[in-house]
Amino acid sequence: MEYEFRRELGGQPLVLMSMGHEALGRYLTEECQEAEALMRIRNALAEIRHGQRREWILNGAEQALHITEDWVRVRDHALGQANGIELEPDLDFYDAESEALCGLEDFELLLDSWQSFLAGR
C-alpha cells in the first residue's frame, strides 16, 4: 500500500493512495483532519489491541470505517444503497474506488504518517 500526502493550492491536506486503496485516502482527507477524529480512532485501535473490543465501526458523512482485530475497511455509504439494482460488470472498477481493505498494522502506520503530516513534521 503506497501513499503520498500533499497540500492543495488552498492549503488543504490531501492523501493520495495506490490503486485499490483510494477509499482510505478519501476517508483520511475528508473525515480525519481534526485531532478529535484521530483520537477516537486511536482509542478504538488501543481497545482492539488490548482485547477490550473485537470490532469498531464509525459512520462518517460519506464513508464508514470498520476496524477488527485483523483488518480495517473503509466503505462508501452509497455502496450499501444499491436497492437491489444490479450494476453493469464494467462498473466494478468504480466500486473498487469506493471500498478499501488493509491490515491493522498498515492502517496504524498510515494513521501515524498522516498525523505527523498534519502536525507539520
UniProtKB/TrEMBL annotation:
Cited Pfam families: UPF0231 (PF06062)
Q: Which InterPro entries match?
A: UPF0231
User: Which family does the record claim for this protein?
Assistant: Belongs to the UPF0231 family.
Spell out the protein name for this chain. Uncharacterized protein
Species of origin? Ferrimonas balearica (strain DSM 9799 / CCM 4581 / KCTC 23876 / PAT)
